[in-house]
Amino acid sequence: MTQEQLNRLLDIAVEAAIVAGKDIISVYESGDFSVETKVDNSPLTRADKLAHEAIATKLAQTGVPMLSEEGQTIPYAERATWTQLWIVDPLDGTKEFISRNGEFTVNIALIYKARPVLGVIFVPVLQELFFGIIGCGAYKVERVNHFDSIKELMEVAVRLPLISDRVTYRVIGSRSHMDERTMRFIDSLRKEHPELEIVQRGSSLKICMVASGEADIYPRFGPTMEWDTAAGHAIALATGKRLIKADEEGELVYNKENLLNPYFIVK
């Protein structure tokens, strides 16, 4: 895949994320928080559905197939033939959306031969945009409310990781899933970093904080799906960070038959 092709796909993915973000905010501000329950007992809102439709429409013009949390019923026999695909979470952090804390995101990743190569994460409430391409770097843009071109965004973007004089070792924990194993892992880190600080965030913002250098490590010993991590994984890789499996060798891979991720650590 050429750099020109990746740049074109990044253009479309960023546009899709921003359009979906506007649909999410329209529901967020309307107060229409009617919630359905999916088969895995996780919540589904009208914002999830609208964002999925908006992204699917935009990404369809690329000719690349899409795997989304809201459209995950594609048989593996079909997916296994895909060399490349989009993996999308139209609204990552539905619980954060319902609780109205603003910590939810739109996640879009391009996967090539089971590896993430491009990632876009948009934070609708803050209008923050994270994006990256492996080998080309990752960037953050604040207060994005429209999109004309990547070139225009690059003029105001900040390259990640951010330069910081922070000295405290910072661990990111899930706002919804701080389990016992995670706490034991954090306690083990305190032996080397006695001044360790725990910061909690929702959705893929946790991966973004490690990618940006605002945190040092994010351990995840709870269930996640491929669409929860793919976009953040691409952005982290573009900054030189990694998402490694917690209980075995290697990084996370995508478009598996079982879309559940193994436990992992971002660092």
Features:
14 strands, 33% helix, alpha+beta, three-stranded antiparallel beta sheet, single chain, 267 residues, seven-stranded mixed beta sheet, 2 domains, D-Maltodextrin-Binding Protein, domain 2, Fructose-1,6-Bisphosphatase, Chain A, domain 1
Describe the structure.
With 267 residues, the protein is an alpha+beta fold. It has two domains: 3-160, Fructose-1,6-Bisphosphatase, Chain A, domain 1; 170-266, D-Maltodextrin-Binding Protein, domain 2, CATH 3.40.190. It is 33% helix and 25% strand. It is built from eight helices and 14 strands. The strands form four sheets. Strands 3-4-5-6-7-8-9 form a seven-stranded mixed beta sheet, with helices on both faces. A three-stranded antiparallel beta sheet has the order 12-14-13, sandwiched between helices. β6 (115-123) and β7 form a beta hairpin. α1 runs antiparallel to α2 (46-59) and α7 (205-212) runs parallel beside α8 (226-238). The longest helix is centred in the first third of the chain and has 28 residues, at 3-30. It is globular. The mean pLDDT is 92.
- Estimate the global geometry from the Cα principal axes: globular
What is the helix/strand order? HEEHEHEHEEEEHEEHEHEHEE
CATH fold-level topology of the largest domain: Fructose-1,6-Bisphosphatase, Chain A, domain 1
* CATH superfamily annotation of the largest domain: Fructose-1,6-Bisphosphatase, subunit A, domain 1
Largest sheet: 7 strands, mixed
**Termini separation (Å)?**
27 Å
Number of E-state strands: 14
